[in-house]
Amino acid sequence: MTTADLAPASVGDTAVHHTACTLDCPDSCSLEVEVEHGRVAKVRAAPPEVAHPLVGGFICSKVGRISRHLYGEDRLLHPAARTGAKGDGDFRRISWSDALDLIVERMVEAKTTFGGESVLPLSYGGSNGLLTQDTADAIVFRRFGASQLARTVCAAPSTAAALGLYGKMAGVALEDYEYAQLAIVWGANPSSTGIHLVPILRAARARGGRLVVVDPRRTPLAKQADLHVQPRPGTDLCLALALHRELFRREDADLEFLAEHATGVDELRRRAEPWTFERAADVTGIPEQDIVRFYDLYRESSPAVIRCGWGVERNRNGGSAVAAILALPAVAGKFKVRAGGYTMSNSAAFRNVGWREPSPGTRIVNMNHVGRVLTDADAIQGPPIQVLFVYNANPLATLPNQELVRRGLAREDLFTVVFDQVLTDTARYADLVLPATTFLEHDDLAMGYGAMVLHDTKPVARPVGEARSNLRVFGELAARLGLPRDDDPRTEAEWRRAVLGRRRQRRLADEGLVLPETGRRPIQFVDVFPHAADGKVHLCPPSLDAESARGIYAFHPERGSEKYPLALISPSVPQTVSSTFGQLRRGHIPLEMHPDDAAARNLGPSAAERGEASSKAEGHGEDGMGRNTELARVFGALGGDKPRVRVFNEYGEVRCRVRLNPDLKPGVVLLPKGVWARSTESGTNACALAPDTLTDLGAGACFNDARVEVEALPD
Ligand SMILES: Nc1nc2c(c(=O)[nH]1)N[C@H]1C(S)=C(S)[C@@H](COP(=O)(O)OP(=O)(O)OC[C@H]3O[C@@H](n4cnc5c(=O)[nH]c(N)nc54)[C@H](O)[C@@H]3O)O[C@H]1N2
Ligand SMILES: Nc1nc2c(c(=O)[nH]1)N[C@H]1C(S)=C(S)[C@@H](COP(=O)(O)OP(=O)(O)OC[C@H]3O[C@@H](n4cnc5c(=O)[nH]c(N)nc54)[C@H](O)[C@@H]3O)O[C@H]1N2
Ligand code: SF4
Ligand SMILES: [Mo]
Question: Per-residue pLDDT averaged across 448-454, rounded?
Fold first, then answer.
């Protein structure tokens, strides 16, 4: 591939460009975009000559239809200042120059009165590449001396566990799953969240490979799996430790591998010791015979690979659970072969990318505590937050304890800037909104965290209205605040070089995309090793042991709660990426509930009524998703109009309707993550029910520790 391949080609009046997707998705697709008169007309997968191998000629439908986001009615077109009450979303247009003056004035005023730490930048940046986060923005906020944000809302526990055990070690390439004799998809739902793995798993099965899915609900993949292991949310740690115990006890552990490549073996063994299969079955709610079957499949298969997802981490035991899962291939001796080992985030395939702006040593605010910190001056040491600058994030829709976040955003004395592409729920509370470009309108660099690839993202369409890129806006803000230094990068090309290094930048320019330096598809413990001084896996790393209350691998049982007996999970759904594209949803979202739980609350047919339906359903076929068509019909019919309910706990409530879903584990209810206020009757989402407690490692979010009750509302 050469740069010539990446230059736009003209087909009639339409220009065809190649670029890459930066959305928060592991697959980082290479895209082909048709542009008409400066506007995006069609987006599809780039052809194989210019695409990275995982793409395989298809992309998701949400990006295929991204013009609805780019040119939809919610798109922000120019800077605007608030005219109505906070939350109303009424603004009047102002100029960029006035907007930037106003920000500078308010930031300087806050610093003079309260100190620089009274300014808080709030960005997560999951849907950003390497140029639009932690570059010019870091120059602004760090040099200004603002508070720093710990970006803990996602991946913090997983990252802590993976780094603690293996350092920055690349995982098994997703393409290699085809060669796995056993693939374990653990707390991940790639049918929604990383679709390019799905055909590869299908290919593996066609070659005789087996599939195990560990998930509290029957996901589309679980329906095709040889074994679906269905734990209660938050109990994976017990399951993983039970597998470890048995590996050691039955002498199936690879002691030779462990002697050469691991530390902390005896500690892990000791901590796994109490977890018999029986006890694990009791705590996880998984039938013991399923654990035995899972053990046998894992023990006897090679290559065996574990795709550990982010569903495992979002609870009080999340960090230790991920650690115990990632330790399995070491103890069971599954490394050293292609398709043997694990995959978590594959961003470890690239080292030393990014701009490093030194930390000013100012205080750090945990993102999960933004609601507390905005509403309670005593929640954190130092000055109260006076200026909040939100970009690359939609906190009102995505942070736990939504009502507290809302109260914080509603504070009259808080000056809030929201810099976004669309008028998000958060933006409605802003004093000032700034219009941002999208990855089809600005320069960026996409780095996969599933696909091992780094590639250029080019502006292919004209920015709508007065939308500007992060690099430009933060560059101008830095200048107005007098922060730039002579050797700071200024142009997009200079930023690319600063972020990538000269050698990689040249490769990217020559080749269009860059695959890992370690060889295209590394084999763990052959081509890549733990990134630690001793090159070993640390099964019981002292730093993590010190961090977790009662030490790593200690199980924290649920606080018993009779008042709120249902476990609410809020996983990703196909239509959105986190909250991105949430404005495009039509209608309201339902709460999904197992029929038994619904019947117990008079919200659905009783077991007897369903039994009758089931016997009628026997002999009926399954549809493409593995649903029994007759059962689905009967559940729908028996359910009648979906009952209106209130889902509630001590943090808040969501009012919506109920949909019966027999694929959930009884006792588990589901609301999708990232929905906007307009998608529920109450204007709240799962975050209104999510506690702002922290995970055992990495101080991450505990979304799936939400415990709730559901009651009927009059229609
Ligand atoms: N279409 C789409 N793609 C996305 C995203 C999106 O919102 N939409 N989000 C992106 C982002 S930000 C991320 S972090 C990834 C996340 O993608 P995934 O890793 O797939 O994570 P989740 O969607 O949070 O949850 C995955 C599964 O975990 C299950 N689960 C919930 N609790 C538990 C538990 O305690 N144990 C186990 N074993 N399973 C549990 C859920 O039922 C769900 O099926 O996807 C990325 N890709
Ligand atoms: N209930 C519940 N909530 C969750 C989760 C859950 O499991 N359950 N999961 C969590 C997870 S996994 C994640 S990753 C977080 C994500 O939380 P967020 O990062 O807050 O969510 P996104 O929807 O990705 O928000 C990104 C915003 O940035 C804007 N944006 C994108 N690119 C740019 C740019 O270049 N410049 C500017 N200025 N703006 C831009 C987008 O328009 C979008 O509004 O949500 C978390 N929230
Ligand atoms: S969101 Fe994921 S699947 Fe969709 S185009 Fe982007 S990288 Fe590909
Ligand atoms: Mo995430």
Answer: 94
